[in-house]
Design brief:
Ureohydrolase_dom_sf; alpha/beta; metal ion binding; binds manganese (II) ion; metal-binding; 8 strands; Ureohydrolase; Arginase, Chain A; 11% strand; 10 helices
Length: 413
């Protein structure tokens, strides 16, 4: 019996030794791993080592990476107040002020996705003569404003607060007094909070260059309803009427705002909508005008309307550039909220945008991209992404000229 007990004890002892060994080994592995992690955290990386990592792994193919605009650095600017930038891309995924097809809340994502082939390493804009992604400006993707889809009063407040907060932020380049924002929409109503913010940032009413099939200066009552509602006044066809009424737009007859690409049907049985628009100090370029005067004629009319076409000598007034993607024909941009046949081609719009690059654009939006109605080839979002690229090119080029830097021309290369 005693012998059996002894045997049992020795077996148990042997098992304990074995178990102990296993536990120790497990601890060693864990402890070793932890130590390594700590080492790595504490290791000081030299700039050369970091540059080597960047050289090896920093590259992104167009189809790779997280979907920021043009593979730009993403910072959620609204929660990162110390992040400075010169030009910020900001998404406004909001579409509950639309009158026909909803869906533009998915616009910012679609435009970012469609910008995938824009990269800094192949970003030279041969039309403009610069690469906006390899120049003086720090351009980042500021992410999206988290806008309520349930309460438009709150949404309007949120957007105005966000645009103001970002618009008042400092810049990286000392020569740029205020950062510039390009907003990815979202329905067109977002132009109202954008203009409210810019009024505050610049301390003066602005002028608007508005590309659109529609006027968007409609009195809210032009949307017939037996059910009066102040809330309904904030919609994507009345925001410029509201902006004018609030004193956000210049009302001097010598400094009008400009529509380009119009072809909307009008209310009632006549031209009353145009007359109302004229009273609100707008100049109109109709989509058909391009057949008679060409893109260069459209450009000239826009520049003349802004009164600093050729060496006018006067200070360039700040202009807000608002581009509703429905300015393009539905053949080129069917993915939008209120399509109107008979519009401009993507190439014509790009050509016109290049022609007006000298304007003092202080902020811009590209709105009404509703990807659910576009084709699998994402033509609408591609057009919007290209438009953003052209605006970026103009903003950077304008800044270069103000800094006294020369822009290369092809024949000088
Ligand atoms: Mn519009």
């Amino acid at each position: 019996m005693a012998r059996e007990i002894l045997t049992l004890v020795s077996v148990v002892s042997a098992l304990l030794v074995l178990l102990n060994g296993l536990v120790a080994e497990a601890c060693n592995t864990g402890g070793g791993g932890h130590g390594k992690q700590q080492q790595q955290q504490e290791k000081e990386w030299t700039p050369e080592q970091l540059a080597e990592l960047e050289r090896k792994w920093g590259f992104e193919w167009g189809f790779g990476g997280i979907g920021t605009f043009a593979h730009l650095k993403h910072v959620k600017c609204l929660t990162t107040p110390n992040e400075l930038f010169d030009i910020g891309i900001i998404g406004a995924p909001f579409d509950t002020a639309t009158s026909y097809r909803p869906g533009a809340r998915f616009g910012p994502r679609a435009i970012r996705q469609a910008s995938a082939r824009q990269t800094s390493f192949r970003g030279f804009n041969h039309r403009a003569g610069i690469n906006p992604y390899q120049n003086w400006a720090k351009i980042i993707d500021c992410g999206d404003i988290p806008i309520s889809p349930l309460d438009n009063t709150v949404a309007l407040t949120q957007m105005a607060a966000a645009f103001t907060e970002l618009g008042l932020r400092g810049t990286v380049s000392p020569l740029l007094p205020k950062p510039k924002l390009i907003t990815l929409g979202g329905d067109h109503s977002l132009a109202l909070p954008a203009l409210r913010a810019l009024r505050q940032v610049y301390g003066r009413p602005l002028r608007v260059l508005h590309f659109d099939a529609h006027l968007d200066t409609w009195h809210p009552d032009k949307y017939p309803s037996a059910w009066p509602s102040n809330q309904a006044h904030f919609n994507h066809g009345s925001m410029f009427w509201l902006a004018g009424n609030e004193g956000l737009l210049s009302n001097a007859s010598t400094s009008p705002s400009v529509h380009a690409g119009l072809r909307t049907r009008l209310s009632g049985d006549g031209w009353d909508d145009f007359d109302d628009d004229t009273k609100q100090n707008w100049v109109r370029l109709i989509a058909d005008d391009i057949d008679d005067i060409g893109t260069s004629g459209i450009v000239k009319t826009i520049l003349d309307s802004f009164a600093f076409g050729v060496d006018s000598g006067e200070e360039q007034a700040p202009v807000y550039l608002s581009i509703d993607i429905d300015v393009l024909d539905p053949a080129f941009a069917p993915g939008t909220g209120t399509p109107e046949p008979g519009g401009w081609t993507t190439r014509e719009l790009i050509r016109i945008l290049r022609g007006i690059e000298g304007l003092n654009i202080v902020g811009a939006d590209v709105v009404e991209v509703a990807p659910a109605y576009q084709g699998a080839g994402e033509e609408t979002a591609l057009a919007a992404a290209q438009v953003v690229y052209e605006i970026l090119s103009s903003m950077v080029k304008k800044g270069m000229q103000e800094m006294g830097k020369t822009v290369r021309r092809h024949d000088e290369l």
